[in-house]
Amino acid sequence: MMKRCIAISIMLISSYCTCTHAQSNERTRALIDQLGNGSWLERDLASNELLNLDKDQGHEISLEELEQYLMDPTLSLEARTRLAGVCLARFLKYPKGGLGVSFGSITPGAIEVQPINNDERFPATAMLNPGDAIALIGDTMLIDSFDLRAQILSRVPGETLPATVLRNGEYLQMDLPLGSLEQLTGAARLDKPLAWRALELRWARKGIVLETPDVIGQKINTTQWMNAAFGDAIPPSPRSPKGRLTAAIVGGAHQIVTTGLTRSRRVQLWESVSNFKQKLFENRTVLLRNQVSLLKANRTVYEHQLANLEAGSSEHSIHEEYVRLVTNQIEELEKQLDQYQAIKDVERNP
């Protein structure tokens, strides 16, 4: 009799769990559909309720389940964007990996790490030496510590980080096991840009690709920018009221704002066409130098790998060709840098 009661209890619990899960899926699907409602208020209510589903034990939903809906082809761009925001909020509370290191000197392709001493909660600290530098995660070259932190945080405790580590001039392949970020004392604050980047990396490994619309157009040339800013490339009148902008580009938004706006710390002024050209060359020069640094770091890694490959093998030939192509690209970029410098010298000494 006792065994029969236990069996009935198990069946009832199983039935309840199945029913609750089905109700949760139905409720979630209804809210996802509501994100495409014609009423802005209804769409906003759906977003807020999705954010709070985990607080209602009757309709709890995991980050993984929410992510499954991201690739729904019936979602509008707005609905998918709202859902991505819900995923980000859930991700901020999600368990995240920790490597157990601080950062030393940082250059593209060589992020120096200083491991915590003898901490069993972070097994990778026993594998890394002080002064080791992490060059790649998988096949992705690291540009700075932001890249490395995002790669770590995109994984959960217990996962491994497939790293290429530079130690005493040699590149080593390591699978670094991750501990928990929550147990890492003095960890830097997880801000929104870093969380977004970590979530994007997580999605990339899962095969989730979000549409990125072209909101300001492509292939805008210098003349078009100047015409947009100054109108027929005519500089602003010196008699314009002080504290007003003729034209500016909003920092972070990359959008032209014209006439009648008061000055702000978030805008970059173009007081004349020559000022615009100067800023253009300066920004382009910085971009080119960063590209050259990254390519040189990438080439160094492949040159070290090339030395360990059997000459004449197909993999050796692929690496050799890659090094040649990267070298050619570096030379082209350095020629552009020389041209910009020549133009800058002429403008300084006309």
Give the tags.
alpha+beta; 4 domains; 16% strand
Number of domains: 4
Quaternary state reads: single chain
- Percent of residues in helices: 40-55%
The first-to-last residue Cα distance is 103 Å
- The overall pLDDT, averaged over residues, is 77
- CATH topology of the largest domain: the name is Pdz3 Domain
What does it look like?
This protein has 350 residues and is an alpha+beta fold. The chain folds into four domains: 2-92; 97-206, Pdz3 Domain, CATH 2.30.42.10; 222-271, no CATH class; 275-348. Helices cover 49% and strands 16% of the residues. It has helices at residues 2-34, 40-51, 63-70, 77-92, 145-153, 192-206, 222-230, 273-307, 314-348; strands at 97-98, 101-107, 110-115, 133-137, 140-141, 160-167, 170-177, 179-180, 244-250, 256-262, 267-269. The strands form three sheets. Strands 2, 3, 4, 5, 6 and 7 form a six-stranded antiparallel beta sheet that branches. Helix 1 packs antiparallel against helix 2 (40-51). The relative contact order is 0.07.
In short:
This protein is α+β, with helices and mostly antiparallel strands. The protein folds into four domains: 2-92; 97-206, Pdz3 Domain (Roll), CATH 2.30.42.10; 222-271, no CATH class; 275-348. The chain has helices spanning 2-34, 40-51, 63-70, 77-92, 145-153, 192-206, 222-230, 273-307, 314-348, and strands at 97-98, 101-107, 110-115, 133-137, 140-141, 160-167, 170-177, 179-180, 244-250, 256-262, 267-269.
